[in-house]
Amino acid sequence: MSGYLKLAGKNLLRHRTRSALTMLGIAASVGVLFSVLSFNRGFNEGLAVELERTGLHFMVVPSGCAHEVAALVLHGAVIPKFLDTAVMEQVTATDGIDLATPILVAQLPDPKRGKIDLIYGVDMTVLSAIKPGWEITGKIPEQDHEILLGYEVAQHEKLQPGDQFSSVSGGMNLVVAGIVGLTGSQDDAFVYLPIQTAQKLLDNPAAATAIGVKVTDPDRMLEITEALTTAVPGIQIVTMGEVMNSISNLAASARALSLAIVLIAILISAVGVMNSILMAVFERTQEIGMMRAVGASRRDIFRIILEETTILSLGGGLLGIVLSILGSRLIEAFVRSVMPFVPSGNLISFDPGVAAGSVIFILVIGVCAGIYPAWKATKINPVEAIKG
Amino acid sequence: MIELKKIEKSYRRGAEKVRALRGVDLSIASGELLAIIGPSGAGKTTLLHILGCLDQPTSGEVLFDGVSTAKLPETKLVQLRREKIGFVFQQFYLIPGLSVFDNIALPLLFSKKPATRSKILALAEMVGLEHRLDHAPAQLSGGEMQRTAIARGLVNDPDILLADEPTGNLDSENSDKIYEILRSLSQNGLTTVMITHNAELAARAQRTVQIRDGLVHP
User: Fold this and answer.
1) Fewest 10 Å CB contacts: which of A211, B41, B92, B173?
2) Sheet of strand B2-13: strand arrangement
């Protein structure tokens, strides 16, 4: 260790509490910065995997907003429009379509209970592909009268697999086949059932909110979507890439806001560093005067003070990364509780590059914050300082 | 070795102009132990700071081994302080977070010389602190602190040691110890200039000059 670094470290240890608190402020800022940057990466990776797992290439929906489609695909938003009944036939008849599966998401009032149930009708054979992260107690429905309950619905109605579900029965004898584990998202509030059953309950045998489509050759997707758009009026085609962009854009907006807040926090911690070091310089005026007298140049003094800020910034930065990694599960749990859609898997993925970048960033900011106190220290007149 | 010619030093204290030195002429020979005495405010410390290249005179000339320091740039003055001058202060100015060893070695950091244990130990032995090298300043008595400061002042092997009231904060027993160290250094060829209020110590110095109203009186 260089003599300057040792001296700087010893100086910081003279005011342990002040140094520790300053370092903690930096650690908090870096921890949040690292979490936000890592979250973005983990979120996008998780989202890509989840969309890939659906096995679908695009969605056919009534003309509207792409964000609604994204919400529909990922957490079953209710779009207040249905596709025309003929659309399904036209889609399946189009050349190059491998699979077309209708999805029906709707609100169904239950006058008996004075409540509205949210139903999600889908071909149960594709459900596990669309919702790969679910943990299901019981089984996925295999019969028309079987249903799957979201966690909150099951909790509220106090139902277990095998129990009869009377709420949306509308004359049908529905039985709970399985219950979805807690997802922390809107999935918890839905009743999942075979699409045909959902259509019967709505008394609209061919209704669909969207059609999920898989093509035989993804390279021909543009050609197929153009053919569909021309052939079928009143529809909109949203590819999974567009869905991902749409969700990513929403997440990016949230990230931009978070980053702005983080930058303000970093600015505050930089001011904290400057204040702490400036205070230390003023307290050590006589000592700095003595050092000038025994041979320290202005440059030596500048270096000692700047190394103090380097230690604080580097220490705080590394501590922040460690705390952020240790607390990543807590942060994930919090994010899942507040965000409408969060992909399954680890949201915060450790990337050494992001960690190093965060530490280097705070190091640069910290050192910049240390320049003014270091400059002030070089301006101390040794004669005046020694006189006290 | 050091010659001061017609040194004047004025500075402002608020609206008032203070003439701290009014034309000091003084020669200090190599190996001399010189005591500077005088009442408070007479200009003793100002003279010492000018001798130590910490301050520049308003007019006049300081010759260090025949070389005038008046036109030397800041970097050269710093180099001169590092290589040729040792300072000892009344308030010791030891760094609390550093051990006695590190306090003694501090000037070596600035002169980019290695702080070898043998060198620091030799200095510590000379001032009687070899058993205190790992102690913190707070664990030392006033006399021990001043002896540490003297060792620090000597670590760069200076040509001259400037001591500003080195016994000012010490009892008579410790004052005697400090004086004996300074006298021993002088006897070994080190030029030593000591400001003191202690008339008895001053009388024991090789030469005593008095400063009164900014002028030297032999």
Assistant:
1) B173
2) B16-28, B2-13, B59-64, B67-68
Which residues, 6+ apart, have CB-to-CB distance to B88 below 8 Å?
B146, B149, B150, B153, B161, B162, B163, B164, B166
**Chain B interface includes A116 (CB < 8 A):** no
Q: What is the H or E stretch that residue B62 is in?
A: strand B59-64
Burial (Cβ within 10 Å: 0-12, 13-18, ≥19) of residue A165: buried
Q: Given an 8 Å threshold on Cβ–Cβ distance, is B87 in contact with A294? A: yes
Two structure tokens written together for B66: 């025949």
Q: Residues A218, A219, A225, A230: is their CA dihedral positive or negative?
A: negative
Chain A residues in contact with B89 by the CB 8 A cut-off are 290, 293, 386
Verify whether the Cβ–Cβ distance A287 to B95 is below 8 Å: yes
Instruction: Confirm or reject contact between A379 and chain B (CB < 8 A).
Output: no
> Which one-letter amino acid corresponds to residue A180?
V
Q: HSE-up of A22 (CA within 13 Å, CB side)?
A: 30
How far apart, in whole angstroms, are the C-alpha atoms of residue B150 and residue B159?
14
Write out the two tokens for A146: 């079987």
Name A62's bridge partners.
A235
Distance of CA A375 to the CA centre of its chain: 42
A4 touches chain B (CB under 8 A): yes
Residues of B with Cβ-Cβ distance to A386 under 8 angstroms: 49, 54, 89, 93, 164
Q: What is the pLDDT of residues A296-305, one digit of tens each?
A: 999 999 999 9
Closest of A85, A101, A72, A98 to residue A224, by C-alpha: A98
pTM over 0.80: no
Nearest-CA distance from B153 to chain A in Å?
A: 7
Cβ pair A386:B110 closer than 8 A: no
Contacts of A297 in chain B (CB under 8 A): 74-75, 78, 110
Residues in chain B within 8 Å Cβ distance of A7: 95, 98, 106, 109
Q: Mutating which of A7, A10, A287, A294 best tests the B interface, going by the most B Cβ atoms within 10 A?
A: A294
CA distance linking residue A37 with residue A132, whole number of Å: 25
Q: What is the pLDDT of residues A71-121, one digit of tens each?
A: 555 555 556 677 776 788 888 888 888 888 888 888 777 776 667 778 888
B52-100 residue pLDDT tens: 999 999 999 999 888 888 888 999 999 999 999 999 998 999 999 899 9
